[in-house]
Amino acid sequence: MKLVVAIVRPEALSAVLEALFRAEVRGLTINRVQGHGGEVERVETYRGTTVKMELSEKVRLEIGVSDHFVEPTVKAILGSARTGDVGDGKIFVLPVEKVYRIRTGEEDQAAVTPIDETAPVLVR
Amino acid sequence: MSAADTAWMLVATALVLLMTPALGFFYGGLVRAKNALNTLMMSVCALGFVGLAWALIGYSIAFAPGNGFMGGLSRVLLRGVGLDAQGTIPHLLFMAYQATFAIITAALISGAIVERMRFGPYLSFITLWSLFVYAPIAHWVWGGGFLATMGALDFAGGTVVHVNAGVAALVAAIVLGPRKDYARQAFLPHNVAFTVLGAGLLWFGWFGFNAGSALAANGVAALAFTNTMMAPAATLVVWTLLDLWRTGRATAVGAATAIVVGLVAITPAAGFVGPKGGIILGALAALPSYFALLVRARTRLDDSLDVVAAHGLGGTVGALLTGVLAQKVWNGVADGLAFGNPRQLWIQFLAVLASIVYSAAGTFVLLKLVALVAPLRAATREEGLGLDVTQHGEEAYAAAEGAILVLPDALPMDTVGVPELEPEGGRA
User: Fold this and answer.
1) Is residue B317 in a domain?
2) Does residue A117 have a pLDDT over 70?
3) Minimal Cα distance from A36: which residue of B?
4) Is the pLDDT assigned to residue B57 strictly greater than 60?
5) Interchain CB contact of B410 with A (< 8 Å)
6) What average pLDDT does range B149-156 have in this prediction?
7) C or N terminus of chain A, fewer CB within 10 Å?
């Protein structure tokens, strides 16, 4: 099992979710985060105060997948989150030691495999 | 000159002026957070740009003596607009009162093109529009133009303000095209509470809009005032019941919209229909707008905040129903269809038609003219980032983390004047 952590532009989120669901990736968690990559900072002015905004709004997705699902997941994100400009984000693939599904107590592979295709999909 | 009338019109002018920032909040709550300031600014800046254009040129086009189509240029730069009486109030006050109408009418259009129009072209467009579309139509109805001669009834601007702005919004939405991802993604309001606040303040200001249009503190003003209260109340009841009937839930965005639709619809009729007529008008006005909103959302027309359904359609329904429900015993001017004068409905229809044709053509030409000088639309990337950051360099909900103060180059750190030793608690 792997944990795919992707950091993408907030405005790309809808496209990413669409691509993931099309790739049949159904379980994920997102947060709104702030971070700094290589992008040019924005300058904003409030009355006489000019500030450089060093942190940009991003969205972090965390997706637990079984090994053979890593590639379709990553491909879906790469294809949907890319604009070609600096600031498109990163994808990290991390090893996972153990996974439990709380509802059933299932472990590992079984815990990250959706059982019921018709079960409601939880987004956000 | 009457002191009572002057006092009321001073207050009414301030009330109507408040409607424009209120509209900013009504619209601002309905857009996404990244476009909140841009949407507010579209209303707020109209106060300055359209207000000034009105005083310099627009007032003359609308209200100076001229022909049936437009006024002359004799009042340009407020020449001859002084403290002498215009009716029973100072001429200058009449001009200021009318300025608030020009401002909000231009700002209304912004609801159709939010989240994608560049700010500079927007300002140029509404300024030109207030001079070349709004001012002539105001002249037709209130400045002694051809619709006034025909006997069209428009108490506070059903055709001049709402049909006019609604049609301009339709044309602007078509010319600009839909937002990126329109009909692919859901665009949710970022702060419904702002929208409800805006609707409440609009209603408050609208008492100045309608009752002030009597231009006097008299019985007609009281009639218009009461209608401005009861017609939207009826619209709100019908709208809420429709919501409950369709979905089982009454929505807050729906209630805010209902208030605006009711206010729009009663505007042309406010001083011409009796209170029962006003209630009937308000109740009936809910139906077309309610269903138009549902249909619009399924089309490719990205009239983002439904200016066409609320103002265009609401204004048209109000203007036509004025021709049905007007009652001479209340207004002393004319009866409508329901009281034995079917001709009035025909005149109302012609007035609406004339406004639609002229507003559509004028709006189209002006937008294309502005587009010759500068592109109307923000780049797709800017639309993604949001217009607050890209057009204004500000955010409505900025996170302070990661903001680094930029000091002016001319003042290096040691000359800015931070004392070496700050006495304990020494700062005031």
Assistant:
1) yes
2) no
3) B402
4) yes
5) no
6) 94
7) C
- Closest chain A residue by Cα to residue B32: A11
Comparing CB atoms, the residue among B385, B398, B399 nearest residue A11 is: B385
Quick one: closest CA in B to A52, which residue? B404
Q: How many residues does chain A have?
A: 124
Q: Which residues of A touch B384 (CB under 8 A)?
A: 9, 11-12, 83
Domain assignment of residue A74, yes or no: yes
Q: Does some domain include residue B428? A: no
A9-23: average pLDDT: 92
> Is the torsion defined by CA of B352, B357, B361, B362 positive or negative?
negative
Q: What is the dihedral of CA A12, A18, A22, A25, to 10 degrees?
A: 80
Q: Smallest Cα–Cα separation from B261: which of B316, B336, B188?
A: B316
Is the pLDDT confidence value at B266 over 80?
A: yes
Q: Is residue A120 assigned to a domain?
A: no
Residue B31 reports pLDDT greater than 90: yes
Give ipTM to 2 decimals: 0.73
Which CATH number goes with the domain that contains B127?
A: 1.10.3430.10
DSSP B36-82: HHHHHHHHHHHHHHHHHHIIIIIHHHHHSSB-SS-B-STTGGGTT-S
Number of domains in chain B: 1
Calpha distance B303→A91 (Å, rounded): 37
- The reply to whether residue B401 touches residue A42, judged by beta carbons under 8 angstroms, is no
Q: How many domains is chain A partitioned into structurally? A: 1
Name the percent of chain B lying above pLDDT 70.
95
Contacts A54 to B, Cβ<8 Å = 402-404
| Residue B416 placed within a domain | no
Q: What angle do CA B8, B12, B13 make, to 5 degrees?
A: 120
Enter the tokens of residue B85: 């009486």
CA distance B212 to A83: 53
Which pLDDT does position A124 carry in this prediction? Answer: 42
Model confidence at B410: pLDDT above 80: no
Place of tokens 């090893």: A95
* pLDDT value, residue A116: 60
CA distance B27 to chain A (A): 21
* Sequence-distant (≥ 6) Cβ neighbours of residue B285 within 8 angstroms: B231, B235, B261, B262, B264, B265, B266, B314, B317, B318, B321
Which chain B residues contact residue A50 at CB under 8 A? 405-406
**Residue B412 within any structural domain of the chain:** no
pLDDT value of residue A118: 54
Q: Which domain holds residue A96?
A: 2-111
**Domain CATH number, residue A55:** 3.30.70.120
Print the domain residue range for B132: 3-391
User: What is the average pLDDT score of chain B?
Assistant: 93
Q: Which residue has the tokens 């987004």?
A: A123
Asked, for residue A28, whether it belongs to a domain, the answer is: yes
